[in-house]
Amino acid sequence: MYGPDVTFLGVPRCDLDDPSSYADADVVVVGAPFDGGTSHRPGTRFGPKAIRTTDYLGQHGSRPSLALRTDGLRDLRVLDAGDVEMFSGDAERSLTTLRGEVAKVVRAGAIPLILGGDHSIAFPDAGGVADVLGHGRVSMIHFDAHADTGDIEFGSLWGHGQPMRRLIESGALRGDRFLQIGLRGYWPGSDVLKWMAEQRMRSYEMSEIVARGLSSCLTEAFEIATDDCDGVFLSVDIDVCDPGHAPGTGTPEPGGLSARELLDSVRRICLELPVVGIDVVEVSPPYDHADITAALANRVVLEALSAIAHRRTGEAWDPLRPLLDGR
Amino acid sequence: MYGPDVTFLGVPRCDLDDPSSYADADVVVVGAPFDGGTSHRPGTRFGPKAIRTTDYLGQHGSRPSLALRTDGLRDLRVLDAGDVEMFSGDAERSLTTLRGEVAKVVRAGAIPLILGGDHSIAFPDAGGVADVLGHGRVSMIHFDAHADTGDIEFGSLWGHGQPMRRLIESGALRGDRFLQIGLRGYWPGSDVLKWMAEQRMRSYEMSEIVARGLSSCLTEAFEIATDDCDGVFLSVDIDVCDPGHAPGTGTPEPGGLSARELLDSVRRICLELPVVGIDVVEVSPPYDHADITAALANRVVLEALSAIAHRRTGEAWDPLRPLLDGR
Amino acid sequence: MYGPDVTFLGVPRCDLDDPSSYADADVVVVGAPFDGGTSHRPGTRFGPKAIRTTDYLGQHGSRPSLALRTDGLRDLRVLDAGDVEMFSGDAERSLTTLRGEVAKVVRAGAIPLILGGDHSIAFPDAGGVADVLGHGRVSMIHFDAHADTGDIEFGSLWGHGQPMRRLIESGALRGDRFLQIGLRGYWPGSDVLKWMAEQRMRSYEMSEIVARGLSSCLTEAFEIATDDCDGVFLSVDIDVCDPGHAPGTGTPEPGGLSARELLDSVRRICLELPVVGIDVVEVSPPYDHADITAALANRVVLEALSAIAHRRTGEAWDPLRPLLDGR
Amino acid sequence: MYGPDVTFLGVPRCDLDDPSSYADADVVVVGAPFDGGTSHRPGTRFGPKAIRTTDYLGQHGSRPSLALRTDGLRDLRVLDAGDVEMFSGDAERSLTTLRGEVAKVVRAGAIPLILGGDHSIAFPDAGGVADVLGHGRVSMIHFDAHADTGDIEFGSLWGHGQPMRRLIESGALRGDRFLQIGLRGYWPGSDVLKWMAEQRMRSYEMSEIVARGLSSCLTEAFEIATDDCDGVFLSVDIDVCDPGHAPGTGTPEPGGLSARELLDSVRRICLELPVVGIDVVEVSPPYDHADITAALANRVVLEALSAIAHRRTGEAWDPLRPLLDGR
Amino acid sequence: MYGPDVTFLGVPRCDLDDPSSYADADVVVVGAPFDGGTSHRPGTRFGPKAIRTTDYLGQHGSRPSLALRTDGLRDLRVLDAGDVEMFSGDAERSLTTLRGEVAKVVRAGAIPLILGGDHSIAFPDAGGVADVLGHGRVSMIHFDAHADTGDIEFGSLWGHGQPMRRLIESGALRGDRFLQIGLRGYWPGSDVLKWMAEQRMRSYEMSEIVARGLSSCLTEAFEIATDDCDGVFLSVDIDVCDPGHAPGTGTPEPGGLSARELLDSVRRICLELPVVGIDVVEVSPPYDHADITAALANRVVLEALSAIAHRRTGEAWDPLRPLLDGR
Amino acid sequence: MYGPDVTFLGVPRCDLDDPSSYADADVVVVGAPFDGGTSHRPGTRFGPKAIRTTDYLGQHGSRPSLALRTDGLRDLRVLDAGDVEMFSGDAERSLTTLRGEVAKVVRAGAIPLILGGDHSIAFPDAGGVADVLGHGRVSMIHFDAHADTGDIEFGSLWGHGQPMRRLIESGALRGDRFLQIGLRGYWPGSDVLKWMAEQRMRSYEMSEIVARGLSSCLTEAFEIATDDCDGVFLSVDIDVCDPGHAPGTGTPEPGGLSARELLDSVRRICLELPVVGIDVVEVSPPYDHADITAALANRVVLEALSAIAHRRTGEAWDPLRPLLDGR
User: Required co-factor (chains A, B, C, D, E, F) (predicted)?
Assistant: First the structure.
């Protein structure tokens, strides 16, 4: 929608209006260049372009992972549907349009991988998946500094601080299969927290993560996420990372995960869980520097794809295996 | 709306819900922190804050102009009503709200001075003035690189490329009292130009300005603007200046006016014409550097206020008069 | 002193010349916009403004901590006295003025929370506290990459590399109750280290912190700090963090703490120790990017306030408690 | 070569290895992502991508000029051949490759429009044109702060300070049909100036341009350029503009043209002279801010194309004609 | 004082404590890395280093001017005395030290060329010259957006808004031989203007410059400056230029001169007047981008030196002379 | 080669053409301002200058390490030979020149410490050492995100992705004494990995490092490195660190080491192993912000020198020893 028409690292293009163009896809990338829902620094409308292209390697649709020995862009059939037209000045219409596009991808049996855009899009992203796979049948693993469970803000239901509430309220997702990782800071207040507790959400604030260890929290979350659910939606707000690792975002909250921790977590999720949809959101290029936030988001996508490809091999992955063991 | 609650260089605050608070105002500053209508780089939501505060002098509500010997903030009664709440994700609602607030100011007999925000707000800004002073009774002098006369864009009527069309279509302003200065570049196309010609708009493209001289064009424009109209609305899109002078904007078009030319033009307009409303728009701080664009916009506001104050003295102004002539 | 007159996240204002205005305060924020003492990159004069306002949430004087379940700005009575006028070109006069203002706060029974400014201000900050509570009765916990115990530099006693020496030499603070955390790099030399050892200071260089663990070092430091002292002054130089987490500072030294480690340390100090004064210094906005350093400093302040509020409840804090446990 | 594969504002692609793909082209854009010849700040390897895409309008291969009433991308058949592979670590090989590609375009009867890259490429650019049209048959109009007539530098013949000497020495271009506009500063020294005078080059230093007026200098230059030559090569080094208008370049020299002056000059050249080749060079995105230098270079290209399209209509152009005269 | 010890573009070093080292100098460069007097954005302490080194050419002590055909660094004997130690936290002491150093240079018969630093240093710069050449015998040509004639600010006599008042009050310079060029904006107020008028200063505000032409104003100023005076001090505050041309400064005021106008003015002054001292001040690298402000200041210095060298040849300079006329 | 001629933090200069000038050196710093080999973002040509000078302390050739109690610049005889002239447009010639210069240093019995420049220089750096000490007698410890073992790229053997292959292919270094630490991401592909395995290289990918711990990996690597080798070359590509800690580099790969981990690793290597050569590469100042990457590289150099100095004392180093233990 902004700038030249490019695909994620050069993967083939498809057209969501032409089902044959993505009939055999494993993953379809969808750009959601929308920042009309942000409560502070805008700019995520340029996120899809930045996440698609920020890489120092040639952009020819191949990325062999050193860690996983899979090529997420080759071992899977990954297509890019381009950007959905989303006028930032009309959140409601834009989100509705997106939801329909996401559902098309799911109906074709592919995993939608949506590049935000601000986090408002989680509502149509996970909602569109649930529309096809069944309301209440998809659990959520949500990386974020913020709970995004606000009610009405600036007079609207549709901002980036509210999608998780809308998903649960609408019945698309179950509150008790909603896992949040990395929360911290000074929002929301007690009313909203009370509502969250009533929904039986499970939110790991950074203090708990530091005290227990991230790995232990993830293991517990995985158990909840896979209990009586058919698939997992993974929503990655880049601000779950510390601003030192992800400065280019709208509402940076100090004290977050390192980039390494996020990448390792995404890898584990996609290796161990039946992921049915992904979004990567809140990359704001105007506030980035040296493109490090966009590069991180690009690697989050590749980490997910590489791990999904590995999971489909059915083999176990051993982090202790040396890189050059000759196999 | 974003960040701390401050007024333009420290002028007193008023409350638009309390007419007594601005009953005797000459000018009321209104913040319009809205960037939901921009077609490219966002960030103008932070424009009102930046324009209000970007100045190296103490912010105590006084600014004696060296050039004009008036103090726009003291000789006039200037109040600041703060920001109108404008959710960028809902352009239509936000613009409607703003229009009502602008009209309140006009009804009180004051000049509304709106700080944008993207140029979408020109529709409620000039429209709100015309609602009170009479449709067709206010002419427009519009500094901009762009005509902003598009029809439907991104499926919406309300973006920053369309307000001037909406103003004329709605009858709020007359096309043949619509003066545009500084247009250039590659938009709009012939259909829109044809519509503009049909409205009998008068648009000075930069080639004409260079060939004839800016001063000559302004003089001609002033004659049209004051023919059978009761007042003039001045709309300053900061991108009328060259990107070297105003980098912090959403849609920079090379080859524009210098900062000096813009300041001198604004001065002449406010000295010579019956200005009834002003907006200064399209300052995008995330793309600014060293705050030079915000500083320029701040000075555009001060230039206007100083000149309005001078006009009210009824005295002529002589640019040849030395600064230290002892009077 | 620079820019508009704002308070820390919108807390009420008080006036240090009017004791009644802060008679019942728990904490009084004081701005110290001084960078005349810095030995390298200046800019900390804009630190108070940046620390007060860098936050993406509305600035209305409330911040409920997710981690601690207290609202530091509501559960405590926090007031902001604005900036002390400190001309950077006259360090001695400026520091003297500040010392008097700090003492006023302490005399009123409140905790002074000074926002720097360069670290020169630690001398009047901790000195002003000691002037009221008694010389030798206040211990110091000092987070910093640098010892700040130099003698005469650039021909002056008053630079930002010397305040800790001045505090001890003057008897305001005891050397053997002076705890330094995070030192590293290549300054000072052996002469100064010898002087420090003679004062029986306890300085934790990063190698020791890495080898022993930060938590263990803190526990040891807490014991010293509370041995025969009536209160603890907490001085946080933001450069204790790694430049990746705090680039916006004057003398960045690679290899420091993470933002998470600093926040957790500040929390523990304010939960476990009788803090009687705080300063947060060396935030230099011109060298910041995406405002991440200012945001971190803002969160250091909030972490301290939230924890002080929690300490006053008398309840224990358990980091393992889940966020949504329903209490 | 760097990043995604895109064409100039979305014009169709062609393949220089497939002559049928550009058989009917009027203009072929060629990217020269090479900065191995620069003597100071590098980064122009990213120039082709930046010049192709830096525009806030949709990139669909159309740009109707307000000033000229032509659409350079539609009225002409403009194709983009993508980037030539140019390893910056091997100047000689890279320049040789480029020369062959440029000649292919000329042989097909099209105008090559090369996007640099550093100015080293002027040698293969103008040389490749002369190889086809005849050595000595093409004159040069060269906008630059620097003469680029150095001999051996850093032990090499091929840097960006030397291409103009190589062109003349090799006989590809005549020295007495070599027009330079905008020179200034402190290079080269008298030896090189003597060589230039011996070649009978005509170089307009900024003092002469200020004293005589740019327009007068251009008129004189045009006469020389069209005397006994078959075509004109236009080489635009963006550093001919003042650093305030073009900061993103490798060797900025204060005191240059404004962006407006450059655009107007390029327009006149392409309206009045038989242009047979163009390059636009020395845009260095890492040193740009808010993309203003890349935007200017993009507009230089469009100005040239719009004017070439106008020249082909055979009609005169009148800058005094109002934009909305209804024709 | 900050960073490595370098000289202006590689000219030889001298030592002000060793008169023999600069006995035969024509010009002695002195660094004044002081920003303790600035009222807003600091950073000029890094000005001397930036002005000395910001150039893309090799730094070997030679710069042949294309415009003037002189080599200011070779035709004159230019030495660099390095930085004076100036602690920014003690303005009074620092300025006193500098005054003594400047006087040493003048006593040796050389022109002091001081690189600031903030404009506070004009007091010791011009004062030190007058101390040797005689109070009242040196006139001042002062390029600036600001009059710098304030009285007491921030409780001090020594800030960067006051040096011109101090010079006149102390009798070092005559008010009626004080020429100011480029003033604009909103400072100072009428009291100060009244004082200035009483001193019979002559200040050219930008409105007068635009109305009369810069050249005409300069000619008039030159007549005043040379009436019953023995020499002229040239003080160039880089903020006389528009922020688009000089963003890297502390108190940018929109609407100033272009870089070209400043360079041409400096050239004329040094060609036509008996310059006895120069300072170039207010370059603040932290706010610069792409180093364009530092580059401009470097060229101001070179322009002055080239013109002084030309003046000493006794020949006239003709701007109409073509660069390659073969002489 | 670029900018003023300075030495590493002010150490004395030597001249590689004059062996007597470095006859008794322990370490000779050599600048390699070359970025002609980079495959993406250039700028490392300014690395040597940035690494030499980026420090907030005075640059007088002394740096006492707080952690190690040695002064690497005083306890060792460290000289700086300045920059080797390396034209980035001719990689082959430039690298050959550098190799000869490095060998000169080794022949004099000193450790060459080369400041890059891009990683292409590892071939002449380690190759030049091996030329003197014997091919196959020097092992390599290589910190990097990338293996740098590519074959032909962009048609050349000499880019920054290939030096390690060239070193092994040429026999200069043994593949089975080649230790790589920090690899990650999506390059190279299986062919190159197969070649690496055949050479019996040992490469620690980040997954293995996270799973086993960095310390354990280093210990294992040290055993291999010292098995039947006479010395160790340490090559530090700054991109081994996470982009949050080292943004100023050409090919940033998220998920790397922290600055603290790199510094501690370098310390251990230089304390425990017989280091015979060092290079620090890939610092690209145009992409740095607040100079944090250059500062880190400067500290990597100092950490190495401090540890080498400590190793020569023959004493053990205890990280648990408190800083102020009085010894």
Answer: Mn(2+)
Share of chain E above pLDDT 70, in %: 99
Query: Residues F296-306: pLDDT tens digits?
Result: 999 999 999 99
Cα F200 to its chain centre, rounded Å, is 22
- Say whether the peptide bond before residue C112 is cis (omega within 30 degrees of 0): no
Using the 8-state DSSP alphabet, how is residue A72 labeled? H
CB contact under 8 A, F319 and C207: yes
d(CA A112, CA A79): 10
Across the interface, of E186, E252, E287, the residue whose CB is closest to B63 is E186
Residue C237 is predicted with a pLDDT of: 98
pTM for this one? 0.98
**If you average pLDDT over residues E156-173, what whole number do you get?**
96
Once rounded to an integer, what is the mean pLDDT over residues E227-255? 98
Alpha helices for chain F (secondary structure H): 47-53, 91-107, 122-133, 163-169, 190-198, 206-212, 214-225, 259-272, 292-313
Is B5 at the interface with chain C, CB within 8 A?
yes
Is the pLDDT at A2 greater than 90? The verdict is: no
Q: Is the bond into F117 cis (omega within 30 degrees of 0)?
A: yes
Test the A interface: residue of D5, D8, D9, D60 with most A CBs within 10 Å: D5
By percentage, how much of chain C surpasses pLDDT 70? 99
CA distances to A49, A306, F76, F83 from F79, rounded to whole Å, are 48, 48, 9, 12
* Whether the predicted pLDDT of B241 surpasses 70: yes
E87, E156, E286 ranked by CB distance to C286: nearest: E286
A8-310: CATH topology is Arginase; Chain A (3.40.800)
Does the CB of C261 have a partner CB in chain A at under 8 Å? no
Strands B202-205 and B178-183 turn out to be: parallel
Q: What is the pLDDT of residues D221-275, one digit of tens each?
A: 999 999 999 999 999 999 999 999 999 999 999 999 999 999 999 999 999 999 9
Q: Which residues of A touch F184 (CB under 8 A)?
A: 66-67
In the stretch 22-61 of chain C, residues with CB closer than 8 A to chain E read 35-38, 40-43, 45-46
Amino acid B326: pLDDT? 67
Q: Which amino acid is at B179?
A: L
Q: In 10 A of CB B46, how many CB atoms? A: 25
d(CA D126, CA E14): 49
- F2: nearest CA partner in chain D: D40
CATH number for the domain whose boundaries are D8-313: 3.40.800.10
Q: Compute the distance between CA of residue C137 and CA of residue C228 in angstroms, rounded to an integer.
A: 8
Of D37, D43, D88, nearest to F286 by CB-CB distance is D43
- Chain F environment of D120 (Cβ under 8 Å): 89
What are the strands, taking DSSP E only, across D223-305?
231-237, 275-281
C-alpha A221: how far from chain center: 17
pLDDT of residue D3: 84
What single DSSP character describes residue C200? T
E63 exposed, middle or buried (CB, 10 Å; 0-12, 13-18, 19+)? buried
Domain ranges in chain A?
8-310
Question: Residue F1 — pLDDT band, cuts 50, 70, 90?
Answer: confident
- The answer to whether D239 is annotated as binding is yes
Q: Collapsing DSSP states into helix, strand and coil, what is residue E304?
A: helix
Across the interface, whether the CB atoms of B256 and D260 are under 8 A apart is answered yes
The answer to whether the CB of C295 falls within 8 A of the CB of C61 is no
Mutate to test the interface with C, among F292, F298, F300, F303 (most CBs of C within 10 A): F292
Separation in Å, CA B13 to CA B1, B110, C79, D109: 15, 14, 22, 68
Nearest CB to F292: which of C184, C203, C244? C244
- CB A247 to CB C57 under 8 A? no
What gap in Å lies between CA E14 and CA E7, rounded to an integer? 10
